[in-house]
Design goal:
There is one protein chain. The protein has about 80 residues and is mainly α. Helix content is about 55%, strand content about 0%. The chain has a domain of about 35 residues.
């Protein structure tokens, strides 16, 4: 009886539904255009605070412009 029970457990567990994975290739609508990365200004250690603030503001401006260009380039491919 116990042998039958053990055999049935192995039989039914091997028939359980198994997950199968498939690779699906999705075609890309278009190639996203290359956007030139900004050349951020690196302050030196002895930069004065007013100059450091100017550098940080300029880097922030470049970052915002870069972000906007990336958004626009991704909108092209929607």
């Amino acid at each position: 009886m116990i042998l039958f029970l053990i055999a049935s457990v192995f039989l039914f567990s091997s028939c359980a539904e198994k997950v199968q994975y498939r690779n699906v290739y999705v075609p890309v609508k278009c190639q996203i255009p290359e956007i030139e990365e900004p050349q951020y200004i690196k302050p030196s250690e002895n930069t004065s605070y007013p100059d450091l603030l100017k550098i940080l503001l300029e880097n922030y401006r470049m970052c915002r412009v870069y972000s906007e260009k990336l958004k626009q380039s991704m909108e092209v491919c929607k």
